[in-house]
Amino acid sequence: MATPAVAEGVSAAAVTALRVVLRRAHQAAERSGRRPEAVRVVAVGKTKPVSLIRQLYDAGHRCFGENYVQEIVEKAPQLPSDIEWHYVGHLQSNKAKTLLASVPNLDTVQSVDNEKIANYLDKAVAGLGRKPLKVLVQVNTSGEESKSGINPSNCVELAKHVKHSCPNLIFSGLMTIGMRDYSSKPENFQTLSKCREEVSKALDLPQEQLELSMGMSGDFEQAIEMGSTNVRIGSIIFGPREYPNRKQA
């Protein structure tokens, strides 16, 4: 267990790192001809303690994300209710209701990659009587079997399903993880942008209304320059992940 002095140092470093990330994100937005506020920075606290997230909250940040249901349902009730939570990890259908019931201030699920999970979320929102939930369709743009996400060729059909068959969900755009080594030739970002064009045309929605969630710690500036409206930043804010007993869901 860290001593109070060490914990304070870690918190101060995270606050400083967050400010650096926000500045870099704003500069990247301006380079792409957009206003800084057009890009959301989701601080992803995977494996990190509530106390550290609270320090970033106290420094003024309000948008946080988690990858695991177990973590977000434990952390969210211990933190202020005006936090805008984003669930960014793979979601099993049997945990959809638990997620929504435990986190009333869950703003968005960014990882809808099949009709089944969309249907479960839709039913859970209706059953709980909560406000409609924003969702992003996750697209596997890298073709890696280890990555979740729908094939790009099927993203239009899933987007149509969410918009037309899930009245308690708000289809808000697309998300991708991409490949870590795509730094100089980010085909995954280009693929997601193309998917947005196709979905925009199919649903008769302006592209500007559809989010592009792409970019993480290693490539977020390039992602923003290529049109990302939402970046998910973890390790360069919070430090390396810690997995003492890795058994999450």
TrEMBL record:
NCBIfam families: YggS family pyridoxal phosphate-dependent enzyme. InterPro entries: Ala_racemase_N (IPR001608), PLP-binding_barrel (IPR029066), PyrdxlP_homeostasis (IPR011078). HAMAP family: PLP_homeostasis (MF_02087). Its cofactor is pyridoxal 5'-phosphate. The modification N6-(pyridoxal phosphate)lysine is found at residue 46. It comes from Rhynchospora tenuis. It comes from the Eukaryota. It holds the Pfam family Ala_racemase_N. Belongs to the pyridoxal phosphate-binding protein YggS/PROSC family. This is Pyridoxal phosphate homeostasis protein. Pyridoxal 5'-phosphate (PLP)-binding protein, which may be involved in intracellular homeostatic regulation of pyridoxal 5'-phosphate (PLP), the active form of vitamin B6. Transmembrane segments: none annotated. PANTHER family: PROLINE SYNTHETASE CO-TRANSCRIBED BACTERIAL HOMOLOG PROTEIN (PTHR10146), PYRIDOXAL PHOSPHATE HOMEOSTASIS PROTEIN (PTHR10146:SF14).
